[in-house]
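Page 37, top half.
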Amino acid sequence: MKKTLLVIVALLAFATAGYGAENILVSHLKGLWYPSTEKALNKAVSEYLNKVKEKKMDNTIALILPHAGYKYSGQTAAYGIKEIVGKKYSRVIILGPSHSHRLGNKLSMPSYKSYRTPLGDIELDRKFIDKLNRKMPYATMRDVIHMKEHSIQIQLPLLQKALGEFRLVPIVVGQLNSSTVKNIAEVLKNCIDDKTLVIASSDFTHYGRRFGYLPFTNDFQTEDKLKKLDMGAVQCIENKNPEAFRNYIRKTGATICGENPISILLYMLPNDSSVTLLHYETSGEQSGDFSNSVSYAAIAAGGSWDTGSKVQVKKEVLTQKDKEKLLKLAEKSIEYYLKNKSIPDSSDLDIRISENMKKVMGCFVSLYENGKLRGCIGEIMPKRPLYKAVISQAVNAAVRDYRFPPVKASEINNLKIEISALTPPEKVHSYKDIVIGRDGMTLNKNGHFAVFLPQVAPDQGWNLEQTLSYLSMKAGLSRNAWKNGAEFSVFQAIVFNNK
């Protein structure tokens, strides 16, 4: 009996290792990678930060930070953390490489509610994580991958000290090909806002027999050669050139463990952002022994994320009251049609039409039931007042979308109605002028035509090439037909819904 109880206790201990109450990941790093008590940890981080005398960058949106134990890389990391002290970010995304688990062309996000360090608990942004999981087919949710992944956990006390409260999105990145790196970057870029900080967790070159990397034929000037090797990678990063960075690693064999997190970040950075090396150091420099050495760098990116007008026109032309009236107009139009089998006039619906609702605009009306599309029809070219277009296209979406059976009266109360009020389409010189997340688009080739609303690509997590491939197939063409001979136009939309 005692033996059975001992086995049960042991199994329970194993099953809950790394967890606190209410599904909390308790960091295993305390006492090993950094001090174990709140007081000692606070003191250590404060001392690191106090040694950094000045900030070098305004409007920091991203950092590249090392992830060794604090006695090795804590001071270097402090140069990056100093840039964000006292700033307000609602969300921090940490991209860290997987050290203990193989993740072939995948990434993992956890199911935890929060992470715990000696400085307290950090709430995870569950809504954002769940959204990413839906949008990324290469995303997994395996908590075991996160339980002892130091590349994520080592950053947390530093961030707690600098920022206070924030929501965390921990992403462990596997061994990715270039296409997946680009896709992840595109999805993240279209989901973040201007209160998001992105951190790529990475050490730089791991040199010596211990790491199986000895690129130099002798030990003469190893320190200088290591720095030159690392600075080649840093230069690619400062130039915001992910292809050059990845090619440099292929060419030199540089053992930079966060290659994929850094690559994702570089693909995310806006064109007008600036990237600066803040500090560089090696463990060989600290110990005086370069037979085995790990390099550490703190790098910051400043600017602002390209979040602006993801699904909005440049100038808002509808008030909140206008939007509410248009949504009610769409709902009542569907009800009227199902009862009378005719499209109503606005006078039949007892809704006062504002001047803004009379503006000539194109529009699409989309219907959703239980999260799934139930109908979507519209008109791109502005040819009649917006309110008239909404009345007509609401009915069409309900009963004339050939992909779905007609909506029944019993379904109306469960429908989510979404209206996209459109700006006039404008031809662009090349598909390269299309901005995913901001632009809706049309493709026209050899009499074949198709359209996507601005929100389609971000909702599906597609990059530009994927979007154009699906647009080509929607037009009845081959998936690569967009590459030659196709004409494109773009438009923007004011998108709003009733749920």
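Page 37, bottom half:
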Amino acid sequence: MKKETKVILDKERCVLCSRCVRFCDEVTGTSELGIYNRGNRAEIGTAPGVELDNNYSLNTVDICPVGALTSRDFRFQKRVWMLKAANSVCPGCATGCNVRIDHEAGRIYRLKPRYNPDVNGRWMCDKGRMEYKPVHADNRLVEPRLKNETARWADLKSVLSSKISSGLGLVVSSAHQSLEEMFLLKSLAGTAALCGGLAGSDMGEGDELLLNADRTPNRKGLELLGLPEMDAAALASAIKAANGTVLIHGGNPASDSAVAEALKAHGDVIYLGSHDNETAAAATLILPGATWAEKAGIFANKDGRLQGFSQSVARQGSGREDWRVLTELGGDDAPTSLKAVRDGLAIALELADTNLNKLPARGLALEGATSGGDV
């Protein structure tokens, strides 16, 4: 294998089972791999000038029975028997592939596909496997900040109470957040203007297998809860018209310069998020939240299938679960547990007879939802 690929072949281990060859022929249809030479010189390889660079190349590592194919990213990083596993959902796109998070001592080492015939079958894309890296990125928000000064949660209680009691002017959600968080944010908004985030953001190039052009895990959730996205011009105008605090939860709407300028001019912006970005830079108060791997929640994939994910690693610094922050902002009448939040969410989704705390292993398909089918 060429050094540029994500997969490394240790030829001395290979038993020429041809599973990897069949995968590239029958699943991806890209046919990069083949068996070359004859007799005792036969070996797996690629034709001259060809690389194993399709969107699903790392699945060949999963199906190799002898460990001849290894992931360049995970190779020699950790003894696999030391890893703990947690079931989750990939946050990399709207498909919502079921994954297993392999972690140890607070660090995620790899993501592997988890079988779900209704969503991703037995596979996941290479881009999705790298979604654990932002969890440990250097730009994580780990402490609250008030006007560029580090603060403590206890000291911010009166500040937050004052801002909420005086009324919010605009509440902005994100397609990266869980259904529970979207529901709480909408409840917290009251009479404030509502926005689901920046329309058209987080889009990429998809394919016909699993990778979706929508690079968010829960844009369907915004639709289910009636949180409309806005284009940059409309969002900038809404910020300028906001008569009160602007509360932004997740995402990075200030990646657009017009939105960033509007936020800075407004001067009263709260940002609840997990990473330092343009939106955090434009905020006057920053509240550190949790990434998808550091909390529990529910995503609705592109087909309208509700899928639960659980916490696998501890939150960093003083970061808090987003739903807890939002319930504290909601005051005494807010739910006090995630179970209570989900009970309210079930009513909002007209699923009062459904226990969202115990979703089926394959997820819950809402009425009218379509199945991705086995891949």
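Margin note: The chain has a mean pLDDT of 93.
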